[in-house]
Each structure stands twice: as structure tokens, then as C-alpha cells.
Amino acid sequence: MVELIIDGQKVEVEEGATILEAADKLNIAIPTLCYHENLTPFGACRVCTVEVVVDGVSSLTTACNCPVEQGMEVRTVSERALEARMLAVELLLAKCPGSEAIRSLARDMGIEEPRVELETEGCILCGLCVRTCQELVGVGALRLVDRGLDRDVKETFVEASTDKCIGCGSCAYICPTSFIKLEETGDTRTVWDRVFKLKKCQVCGNYWAPEAQLEYIRKTCNLPSDFFDVCPNCK
Ligand code: FES
Predict the structure, then answer these.
(1) Could you give all domains of the chain from N- to C-terminal order, each with its CATH number?
(2) What mean pLDDT is predicted for residues 8-35?
């Protein structure tokens, strides 16, 4: 076990636990955006920034992916931590002013509007879609790639491998900025510019899930070929 102090309170947690988990044990809330309890932490958005003091040296770190250390002191609401978090949220808001998830974080911090405007396509590179596709769905159709625009400048994008994608839409569901678009019309669903045919229920006649997704689940779970002929509502 590891003992540390968070906002003046002692807490003991398992070795390898993160600061976020330790704070949760004390019911101390630290805001997050790119963190999800069922995914590997990524440390991308910096919304969870806290101040830590180790051996008398103070620094800033992201609570969601920083492991605790014996004797560490964590300050979640110090001036330094709050300033860093506000800056992170303000930049995110400047990139994605339409995202309700980011607007809500900004409101909680008293930020009305960002002081700058940044050109963005709406992707904040939080990696939630990539990790969900890889770790929860098990498909791995998305990845973050760097493309060099010239010798010194690199831009990072989310790239979809459309031949791997099964059209489940988990990426669109988890995306905090609605950057990933999913549309359904009639018997088709479109995501990542790929059109997926939807399966028709043999009882109610509703189109209820992409055939590619159902086939993936059927094969992965070794289910009979007619297992998804009827939708969950009619089973
Ligand atoms: S929630 Fe920790 S860096 Fe995004």
C-alpha cells in the first residue's frame, strides 16, 4: 500500500493506483474529459491537472494517469492547479465552442467565453474513440496518426480503417465534441463515410443494427447463424 496526502487528508491506496483513484477514495472530485473508467488513461486533455509535491519539489501533472507515490502530497485546488486546469479548459473551449461537455466544464470553472479563437475541425484528440474501439469493442479500426505538413510541423488526426470498422457507432457515442458523425436513414447507417447495411428484424420488421457489427459479435461469441434474425425487443 502507498500512503499520500491529498488536500491535507491522508489516504492509503494500492500501489499503481492513480492520483484520480486516490482522490476518489476521499470523495475529492477532480474534473476529467478524456478519462473513462473502463479505458486505459491517456492524459490528453489536461483537464485533471493537479499540483504534486514530491521530496519538496512541486510540479503539475495529470491526475488520471499519474501513479501515486509514497509520501506524495497532492493539491487539487491550489492556485497553480486551478490556473492550469482553467487554461486547459479555455483552450478546449476555443477549439470546440459547441461541445456541451466542454461548455459544462467551462461553466463549472466560471469561464464564459474563451479569450482566443482557434480553428478546429472539432476533434480535440482526446483518444476516447480510439481506445473505445480498441479496448471495449475489440476491433481497433481507429488510430491517431501524425502527418508531417512540412519539415517541422506535425498534425495529428484520427484515422479510420474503413475495412476494419463494423459500424457499431461506439466512437460517435463516446466522442465528447460530436466530431464523429453517425447518420441512419432507412436501412443504412453511415459512419466514417462508410455506409453499413442494417439488419431487419424478422418479427417486427425494424432495422436495428449494422449487419457487419452483428456478424462480428456472432463470430466472436461463436453464436448460431440465425442468432440475430430477431431483434432484442422481439426475442
Ligand atoms: S482527464 Fe486526465 S488528461 Fe484528460
Answers:
(1) 2-108 (3.10.20.740), 128-220 (no CATH)
(2) 97
